């Protein structure tokens, strides 16, 4: 009697997805920039990464609410094989490391209104020797934002007259029972 008895069948968590689309074009060194983003939930940081890019290159990540359909091909602009996959609603700039990687992050508001919102990203890197245009592009990434469960569990230890325990915010338990 009055013993600790957890009985969790499962624990709720946020669901966030990322999906790559399209492809990038090669740098003067023959490497194609690889762009990825983190899965995330509202109220936290969202990270965007690129690797296999030219070393110490001026770099931008384009962010928008939709893909560029159809993609704008770079061939007429002197960038064969490159494509604009994402429009530029907002961009973040930087410089790649000596190894050809860079990352950015954005703090997301904790607003349920943005649950399941999607953002599309693509990275562009300066590379004067890659093509006549002087820029190369990465693949695009679609990220869907999750939200933490609006649930709390309270863990209690001891007797019913002892008011000790722990509160676990955003920790929703899922209990599924069936009678057979």
Main pleated-sheet profile = 5 strands, antiparallel
Uncertain segments of ≥5 residues (pLDDT<50)? none
Strand content: 35-45%
Instruction: Please identify the structural class as seen in this structure.
Output: mainly beta
Mean pLDDT: 87
State the helical fraction: under 10%
Describe the global form. Answer: elongated
> Strand tally, please?
14
Q: Order of strands side by side in the largest beta sheet?
A: 2-11-10-5-8
How would you characterize this protein structure?
The protein has 180 residues and is mostly beta strands. Helices cover 0% and strands 44% of the residues. It has no helices and 14 strands. The chain has strands at 10-11, 17-21, 34-37, 45-51, 58-64, 67-73, 83-86, 90-95, 102-107, 118-126, 135-144, 152-156, 165-169, 173-174. The strands form five sheets. It has a five-stranded antiparallel β-sheet with strand order 2-11-10-5-8, with no helix packed on it. It has a three-stranded antiparallel β-sheet with strand order 3-4-9, with no helix packed on it. A two-stranded antiparallel sheet has the order 1-14. Strand 12 and strand 13 form a beta hairpin. The relative contact order is 0.29. The mean pLDDT is 87.
């Amino acid at each position: 009697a009055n013993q600790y008895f957890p009985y969790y069948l499962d624990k709720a968590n946020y669901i966030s997805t990322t999906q790559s689309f399209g492809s990038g074009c090669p740098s003067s060194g023959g490497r194609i920039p690889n762009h990825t983003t983190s899965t995330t939930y509202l109220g936290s940081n969202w990270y965007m990464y690129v690797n296999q890019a030219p070393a110490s290159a001026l770099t931008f990540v384009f962010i928008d609410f939709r893909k560029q359909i159809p993609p704008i091909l770079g061939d007429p602009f002197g960038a064969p094989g490159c494509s604009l996959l994402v429009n530029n609603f907002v961009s973040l700039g930087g410089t790649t490391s000596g190894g050809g990687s860079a990352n950015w992050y954005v703090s997301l508001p904790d607003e349920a209104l943005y649950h399941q919102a999607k953002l599309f990203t693509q990275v562009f890197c300066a590379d004067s020797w890659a093509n006549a245009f002087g820029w190369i592009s990465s693949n695009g990434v679609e990220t869907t934002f999750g939200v933490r469960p609006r649930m709390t569990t309270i863990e209690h230890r001891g007797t019913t007259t002892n008011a000790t325990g722990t509160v676990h915010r955003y920790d929703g338990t899922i209990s599924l029972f069936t009678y057979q």
